[in-house]
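Task: sequence design from structure.
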């Protein structure tokens, strides 16, 4: 990694008067009494950056551990089974042989298809995911109101992220599904997350 000292030495080699002027301004930091101060400032910035990253990661993993604990309590409450608790009206539809009765259905905005949340699992197009195979669920709530630009639409879009223990993450995005923050929150909480 280049140091301030390297820049100072390269500037001294240049014939232009502007280079000499910049080199003179850097001289105190590279050869004089401020050399130690510039090193200390660099170390302080580095340590501060590392401390910020460690703090962020600690809080992220603490929140994840809290969600995992809630999900485990939810499983214990249901005798070790992963079940979607639902207090609202049930969706009308045929039950699934593996996952039981249909609890809630989130239709696509265009075309046929829907995300179907059954009592014991999720069916999304050709994907079938038992709730016992989910390690985490996160909700990024949609921001209401008109979106005039693509940037606003992307920034304000709601997503229900479902993280399976194996395989690719599933995202129910507002741009593809009829997204309702209240329903998505009930699904997340109903799964114990």
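Answer:
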């Amino acid at each position: 990694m280049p140091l301030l000292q390297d820049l100072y030495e390269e500037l001294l080699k240049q014939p232009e008067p502007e280079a000499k002027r910049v080199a003179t301004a850097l001289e105190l930091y590279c050869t004089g009494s401020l050399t130690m101060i510039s090193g200390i400032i660099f170390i302080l910035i580095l340590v501060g950056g590392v401390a910020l990253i460690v703090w962020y990661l600690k809080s992220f993993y603490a929140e994840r551990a809290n969600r995992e604990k809630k999900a485990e309590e939810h499983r214990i409450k249901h005798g070790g089974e992963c079940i979607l608790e639902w207090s609202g009206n049930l969706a009308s539809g045929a039950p699934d042989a593996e996952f039981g009765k249909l609890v809630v259905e989130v239709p696509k905005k265009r075309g046929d298809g829907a995300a179907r949340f059954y009592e014991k699992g999720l069916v999304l197009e050709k994907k079938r995911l038992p709730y016992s195979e989910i390690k985490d669920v996160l909700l990024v709530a949609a921001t209401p109101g008109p979106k005039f630009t693509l940037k606003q639409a992307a920034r304000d879009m709601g997503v229900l992220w479902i993280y399976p223990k194996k395989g690719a993450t599933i995202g129910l995005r507002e741009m593809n599904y009829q997204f309702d923050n209240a329903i998505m929150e009930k699904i997340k909480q109903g799964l114990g997350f």
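DSSP finds five helices and seven strands in the chain.
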